[in-house]
Amino acid sequence: xxxxxxxxCIDRIREGFFLxxxxxxxxDVGGTHVKVLATGHKTMREFASxxxxxxxxxxxxxxxxxxxxxxxxxxxxxxxxxxxxRPVHEPHNLGGGWVKFNxxxxxxxxxxxxxxxxxxxxxxxxxxxxxxxxxxxxxxxxMIVDGILEPMELAHLPYKNGRTYEDxxxxxxxxxxxxxxxxxxxVKVVQQLRAAxxxxxxxxxxxxxxxxxxVPPGVRLSSNASAFVGGFRMWQNNYLQKQ
Length: 243
Known about the structure:
The chain has 243 residues and is an alpha/beta fold. Helix content is 35%, strand content 27%. It has eight helices and 15 strands.
């Protein structure tokens, strides 16, 4: 049997053990910071990211700040499209080298990768249908319907005046429009997506959610800590994701 298939089979066997016994290291990769938390710890650790952060730099940084933590597997929230557990495009707001990088080899542990907004959505989900929108460097989005997770890429769809949703409700929109108009567009975007997707619940999260001075009607606010909950849930078989 080829070596890659052997490793795949070993990972599947290990996952059955992890469902009950694993210590998981969760990595939330953002446009400004990389944040990490491991099972059994209450305080996250972080370091700066930015346009020069490559996949290799990220792994080195995580290993450095996670010294002293014991973990059996790794969950990564990736700021871009993930298909079958692998990034398919380089991130818009970071450095390169992510798509072909071997994260399992670099960490020496089984690794699961999920879009960062989808990981936050997983951490916020309760029941029924839920739309998650992440207000961060860009606009993250994911929907969960009856336990099935569907990562989405709404950020770069056209919204207004030749610009995208992300151009208005991401950090560029906040800087260009000011907080008042930025908040007004968030309300409009929520209304549009509620009408189009008909979720039972909408959750707003991401680093900039704390800058909202009022909560749009019918919306629940989350914190970035939900990403860690989602990262732990990625190894539980009662939370399903569409691949």
